[in-house]
Design goal:
Length: 646
């Protein structure tokens, strides 16, 4: 969905900057075209200046970053054009009082959100958002580390709320819904959740407000609720846990011990489950699944364990949407599986710092298919299976780890996907991983099945993928990093290693704008290539170094047009000719350092450190396509014979 910001004052300009910084493409409009052009020019290629009327026509989401009184008139003037749009209102119903303070310009018990909702055009949907913080905090609080600050929002329409929640995430904050528009007074100036909270006693007539600690994290808010809310229950036994889950008045369950022998447990909508300390754990009975989420659930600070091949955390697909599912600071044995299918028609998922010690996803037989193969799902799977392209799951995923060195999880590692090019989509701002170790357990020679350490599947759209830790695969047909989806930027800071036959360090079938591999890619299995572009597009790719050790293991293979490829410390192969899996077919390949296949081309390839092969009769360079500019420093060396150093 496209977004327009109308009004480029203190709030509008800062919000535009935050969204562009997060990679969102936006339309900006202001009182004059010159003002919009100036702001768009400062923001760069992700911002387009437009007249107000054109911005409304082009965009699906309209952020009205203008004064409260101006919004009311704006809705009248542009009523017809705004029909069917998502309208975002960050306004606060205050004005200067002429004495250095502010006054509320509507009755104390009223909110601007409720009043504006009554003025909406047909089919328009209102979301109250981006007005919780003052302009300075909106700018300074974005992308805080290690945990993001919260921006509250209110919405009656769940899907509209999810769309705006994604924008809040892109802008550098953690979104939290407070309820419907009738709750918007809480997030306006003077409300208990606004940075400038309740009107100070004795100063109300002068219009002063008390500034609260507006930049709060989700964790801090949860702590506040756990200490203040009487609907919290602390449990340490199986009986106490079940009683709390069954009690509709309980909103927060605090686990204060290790609880063993738990049967599969469903969390009703809105229920949160948190551990009190590092000892808090839920260990489920043998043969049992674990926690079933419904909608608007939060699970954090827990150890959750089932049998490795069971679902430790999964979702009820009979509900009409995820709402907002939050998983944070979890240590898991078993599969984490979140599926959008059946009745699920949307939602948002946040998963942060999830460490899956052991799991086996090979028994889950629903598998995406394409390019002559099927993909085994991951031990962490977020998969939109809906055939309806209008079903969108948004996500923010960081700190996902799986397996241990020498003790990999079975199946794929981290799996994020939609339902292909024409079906439901997953739209993620971030997909960030720690260490991932996986083994698909595929029998050698199987031509039509693969796995991936980190796999972005068709129908997934990810702004940024970042592998902070090493990603290692151990089995046959195990891709280490695989893209079938659409990724703006993929950064690899941990070593990429493949130990099984017919694996690939990084393989692309989708659309990838920019790839930065700042660590070694190294493969050890027969036919295991370093980097391969089968189809799709790669605009720019940078590599530290690529090394392969076995027969048929090409260093870099290009079968489609690509942009620029840079290798900083050379490509080196140690094998000869051998079998390798290519799009579901086993073929014979020589371990060429750089291979440009028929149909492959590159605008520019620059390699420092040379192209070196050690297999007998293996050429360093195979060129059946076109390269506009080729630069190789360090020479082309066939150390196994048949080619001299240049």
């Amino acid at each position: 969905m496209s977004t327009a910001i109308i009004g480029l004052g203190n709030i509008g300009s800062r919000l535009a900057k935050n969204l562009v910084t997060g990679g969102e493409t936006i339309i900006v409009a202001a009182r004059t075209p010159d003002e919009a052009e100036e702001v768009a020019g400062d923001l760069g290629r992700h911002a387009e200046a437009s007249r107000v009327e054109d911005a409304i026509a082009k965009a699906d989401v309209i952020v009205l970053a203008i004064q409260f009184d101006a919004i009311r008139q704006f809705l009248v003037t542009h009523r017809e054009a705004l029909a069917g749009k998502i309208i975002v209102d960050p306004s606060n119903p205050i004005a200067p009082d002429g004495k250095g303070g502010y006054r509320k310009i509507i009755p104390d018990e009223q909110s601007s959100g409720v009043l504006i909702s009554g003025l909406l055009p047909d089919r328009a949907r209102l979301v109250k958002a981006f007005g919780t913080l003052g302009a300075e905090s909106l700018e300074a609080g974005a992308n805080r580390s290690p945990e993001r600050a919260v921006l509250f929002y209110a919405a009656d329409d769940a899907q509209a709320g999810e769309v705006v929640a994604r924008l809040i995430t892109v802008s550098g904050f953690s979104p939290m819904r407070v309820g419907g528009i009738d709750q918007s007074i809480r997030i306006e100036v003077g409300g208990d959740l606004h940075e400038y909270g309740a009107w100070q006693a004795g100063q109300r007539q002068r219009g002063h407000v008390a500034r609260l600690s507006g930049l709060r994290t989700v964790h801090q808010i949860m702590e506040e609720r756990l200490t203040m809310n009487t609907e919290t229950r602390t449990v340490s036994t199986l009986a106490e846990l079940q009683t709390a889950v069954d009690d509709d008045q309980v909103l927060y369950i605090v686990v204060s011990a290790q609880i063993d022998g738990v049967a599969a447990l469903r969390l009703r909508p809105g229920l949160a489950l948190t551990g009190i300390d590092a000892h808090a754990a839920l260990r489920f009975a043998p043969g049992s699944d674990g926690l079933q989420l419904s909608a608007d659930n939060r699970v954090e600070g827990l150890r959750v364990a089932t049998d490795p091949d069971r679902r430790a955390i999964f979702n009820d697909t009979r509900v009409d949407g995820f709402g907002r599912l939050v998983l944070r600071h979890l240590s898991v044995v078993g599969v984490v599986q979140l599926l959008a299918r059946d009745s699920v028609a949307g939602g948002h998922v946040e998963a942060h710092d999830i460490d899956i010690w052991a799991a086996d996803a090979r028994g889950y037989e629903e598998r995406p298919k394409g390019y002559g193969v099927e993909v085994v799902p991951g031990v962490f799977t977020l998969w939109n299976q809906s055939e309806d392209r209008g079903v969108v799951i948004t996500a923010d995923l960081t700190g996902l780890s799986a397996g241990r060195a020498g003790a990999p999880v079975r199946g794929s590692g981290i799996f994020v996907g939609g339902a292909g090019e024409m079906g439901g989509r997953v739209v993620a701002n971030r997909l960030e991983t720690g260490a991932v170790h996986s083994d698909g357990g595929i029998a050698p020679g199987t031509p039509d099945r693969i796995t991936g350490g980190v796999f972005v599947v068709s129908g997934a759209f990810v702004a940024s993928v970042h592998n902070h830790g090493p990603v290692t695969t151990y089995g046959s047909n195990d891709m280490v990093l695989d893209n079938w989806g659409t990724v703006d930027r993929w950064i690899v800071d941990g070593k990429v290693s493949s130990h099984g036959p017919s694996g690939i360090g990084f393989v692309n079938f989708g659309s990838l704008e920019r790839l930065e591999v700042n660590a070694l890619i190294e493969t050890f299995g027969q036919g295991s290539r370093g980097f391969n572009v089968y189809t799709g597009t790669v605009r720019s790719a940078q590599f530290e170094r690529v090394v392969t050790h076995a027969d048929g293991a090409v260093g870099i293979q290009i079968s489609q047009p690509v942009g620029e490829i840079v290798v900083r410390r050379g490509i080196e192969t140690w094998g000869g000719t051998g079998d390798s899996l290519v799009k579901g077919v086993v073929v014979r390949l020589a371990a060429t350092a750089l291979s440009i296949k028929p149909g492959g081309s590159a605008r520019k390839i620059a390699i420092a450190g040379g192209l070196i092969t050690h297999g007998e009769g293996v050429n360093p360079l195979e060129l059946h396509g076109a390269i506009d500019a080729l630069e190789v420093s360090g020479g082309l060396t066939a150390a196994g014979g048949g080619f001299a150093t240049i």
